[in-house]
């Protein structure tokens, strides 16, 4: 039986709150036990990704958990905004246009010493895709990430973006190989060890 998948396009964030003037943002998305994130973008609170992340559909795939974070060179990244979105509701909202989701401020979030209830909005588009189209999306994402790495490495002020883009591309490639690895048990075992090391280093970074 053909398995269906979700393709979630993370388009942009509008009026993201931050303590830093030239903050670098990225978006984390979790669905059931699957986790994806965009690359890191510098911006003035209006980052535009137009990045697509993919997920397999399962019985547990009911709610997208979305986190907007500010990347930091030192210390833990800052959680800027969060939202939980029902999958079926988002599909309906995206039937004819993109969906706008308000990001709630994390507990205790202060900006200019004032407590915030929301920290901007995120624009998304969700659709169902089959396995072939999911593979095409992941290949295109890896190609775009590779091109961004070439562009960013020519600049001297983009260290955070380069790191984020490298991790983004590697995560896409790992997801693709995960599917192939299941064909042969021995290859699957060795690949699980290799990918686990990357995932650990990505988390620690």
Automatic annotation (TrEMBL):
Annotated PROSITE patterns: C2 (PS50004)
InterPro entries: C2_dom, C2_domain_sf
Name of the protein in its database record: WD40 repeat-like protein
C2 domain residues: 1-101
Pfam families in the cross-refs: C2
Signal peptide: none
Coiled-coil regions listed in the entry: none
């Amino acid at each position: 039986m053909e398995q269906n998948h979700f393709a979630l396009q993370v388009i942009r964030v509008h009026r993201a709150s931050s303590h830093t003037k030239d903050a670098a943002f990225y978006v984390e998305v979790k669905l059931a036990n699957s986790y994806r994130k965009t690359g890191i973008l510098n911006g003035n609170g209006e980052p535009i990704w137009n990045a697509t992340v993919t997920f397999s559909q399962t019985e547990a795939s009911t709610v997208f958990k979305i986190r907007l974070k500010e990347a930091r060179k030192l210390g833990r990244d800052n959680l800027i905004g969060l939202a939980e979105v029902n999958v079926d509701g988002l599909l309906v909202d995206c039937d004819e246009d993109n969906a706008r989701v308000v990001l709630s401020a994390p507990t205790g979030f202060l900006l200019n010493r004032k407590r915030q209830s929301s920290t901007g909005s995120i624009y998304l588009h969700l659709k169902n895709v089959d396995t072939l189209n999911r593979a095409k999306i992941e290949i295109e994402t890896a190609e775009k990430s590779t091109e961004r790495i070439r562009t960013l490495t020519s600049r001297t002020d983009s260290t955070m973006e380069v790191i984020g883009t490298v991790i983004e591309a590697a995560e896409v490639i790992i997801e693709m190989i995960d599917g192939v690895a299941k064909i042969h048990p021995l290859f699957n075992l060795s690949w699980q060890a290799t990918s686990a090391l990357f995932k650990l280093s990505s988390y620690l970074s």
